[in-house]
From TrEMBL:
Functional pathway: Cofactor biosynthesis; adenosylcobalamin biosynthesis; adenosylcobalamin from cob(II)yrinate a,c-diamide: step 7/7
Annotated localization: Cell membrane
Gene Ontology biological process: cobalamin biosynthetic process
Main location: membrane
InterPro entries: CobS
Enzyme Commission code(s) on record: 2.7.8.26
Protein's name according to its UniProt entry: Adenosylcobinamide-GDP ribazoletransferase
Entry membrane topology: Multi-pass membrane protein
Membrane-crossing residue ranges in chain numbering: 51-71, 109-128, 140-160, 180-198, 204-221, 233-254
Cofactor: Mg(2+)
Organism placement in taxonomy: Bacteria, Bacillati, Bacillota, Bacilli, Lactobacillales
GO molecular function: adenosylcobinamide-GDP ribazoletransferase activity; cobalamin 5'-phosphate synthase activity
Length: 255
């Protein structure tokens, strides 16, 4: 029951798909269901991977992947990309911590945020095209499926002893304050199991690369902002997407 209600809560929160029904305390399922976030990532990945596979049957793989990127924006409302852009505007403003947080709360898109999004999509399409032989049909299907799972498991890893910091009281990121360590461990076990199941040894390497990046990212955010906000939590996903896609393409060539 907790799994089902958590999935409903996550679809409502992370996507434009509204599933009707009374969950009671929805915030409870967003927090305590965090161990299931990789499962939710798999569901989103399943939708987008299926779109890729069907498109790749009739057009070249890079174009099919671009359709997926567009579908992701329509499905999720570009939630993580928005956080990434806001984070970039704040971090690269060269202001003090409080001012950075205020800039991140501003709904307007700044120069650094726009550039961050441009380079994100350039890297995603560029990496996919460069390693296109590693992403044909079924291989591309699996990569897109697992990319979304890894993105969500990466967010969960940042919940560990998370220090929350925001320009105003409240904020979306505060939902995941004090997440149980057991939930974080379960989420990572799920992610590792699927990575190893599909990529074997390469899956372990991919996971370790993600963890190494998250350790550096965590230290950077704590130093720059003094804690995490919703933007710095969700905004990590576009970065890990790029790292994941590059890791799969490169390791597929080397191993």
């Amino acid at each position: 029951m907790t799994l089902f209600k958590s999935m409903v809560a996550y679809f409502r929160f992370f996507t434009r798909i509204y599933i009707p029904g009374d969950l009671g305390n929805e915030l409870y399922y967003l927090n305590h269901g965090s161990k299931f976030l990789p499962v939710f990532g798999l569901l989103i990945g399943l939708i987008e991977a299926s779109i890729y596979y069907l498109c790749a049957l009739v057009v070249h793989a890079p174009l099919a992947f671009m359709v997926v990127l567009l579908a992701d924006v329509c499905l999720t409302g570009a939630m993580h990309q928005d956080g990434f852009a806001d984070l970039s505007d704040g971090i690269f403003s060269s202001r003090k911590q409080d001012r950075m947080l205020e800039i991140m709360k501003d709904s307007r898109l700044g120069t650094m945020g726009a550039l961050a999004l441009i380079f994100y999509y350039l890297f995603m399409v560029g990496i996919f095209t460069n390693y296109v032989d590693q992403f044909q049909l079924w291989d591309g299907y699996i990569a897109i499926l697992l990319m979304h799972m890894v993105g969500k498991s990466d967010i969960v890893l940042l919940f560990y002893k998370m220090k929350y910091r925001n320009a105003t009281h409240g904020g979306l990121g505060q939902i995941w304050s004090n997440v149980a360590t057991s939930n974080i461990v379960i989420a990572q076990v799920i992610a590792i199991a699927f990575l190893v199941g599909f990529y074997q040894v390469a899956g372990v390497i991919i996971y370790l690369i993600q963890v190494l990046f998250l350790l550096v990212y965590r230290r950077f955010i704590l130093k720059k902002l003094g804690g995490f906000s919703g933007d710095s939590l969700g905004g990590v996903v576009p970065m890990t997407n790029v790292i994941f896609l590059f890791s799969v393409g490169a390791l597929g060539t080397w191993l």
